[in-house]
Amino acid sequence: MADLASHHYRPPHQPLSGSRSPPSKGPKLPKNFSTPLTCYYWYNGTCSKDAAECIYAHHYAGLVAEPPVKIGSAGVGVAGPDAAKAVGDALELRKALHEKEQKLREREDVVKKREERVKEVAGELKEWERRINKDSDRVRKREDDFLDRETDLFERERDLRGREREFERRMR
Ligand SMILES: [Zn+2]
Q: When comparing pLDDT for 131 and 51, which is higher?
């Protein structure tokens, strides 16, 4: 240590610096803000951590932390570094949702195209039906015509047989 190498006098009762101080690196803890953020749980008398452990102040300086953010359907409360992770997770979730949405939109387009195709086919089927009905009407009409002609023929045959009988009768 630099202190050991130096010749500066240090009173023996002065505690060694750095041995028990909180981590100086990383983000400033809420309890060390210029206006310390008071622990939401401590303020409500329910913090399970002691003042040294908690990243929030266990004394009131004018500001109380917001209630922890509820993430997910489980409703797990998170704050501090956990909240940052949760926010990260939420962003990941949003990204995943966005991608899902995009995929859904693509599938929607495919479904729309299939719907249009079905409509087209339905239209073609209708046209077919119309033609078949027209054809069957024509066939029915021909059948009727044929029946008329058959009836006509039958009557003519009967008439002919009558004339034949009349002829035979005269020849006797
Ligand atoms: Zn606390």
A: 51
Measure 84 CA to ligand 1 centroid, in angstroms. 17
CA distances from 17 to 9, 32, 166 (A): 15, 18, 150
Domain segments of the chain: what residues?
A: 16-67, 81-172
Residues 6+ apart with CB under 8 A from 99: none
Q: How far is the CA of 26 from the centre of ligand 1 (A)?
A: 19
Distances (CA, A) of 169 to 2, 86, 161, 165: 157, 119, 12, 6
CA of 53 to the centre of ligand 1 (A): 8
Give the Å distance between the CA of 68 and the centre of ligand 1: 12
Its pTM stands at: 0.31
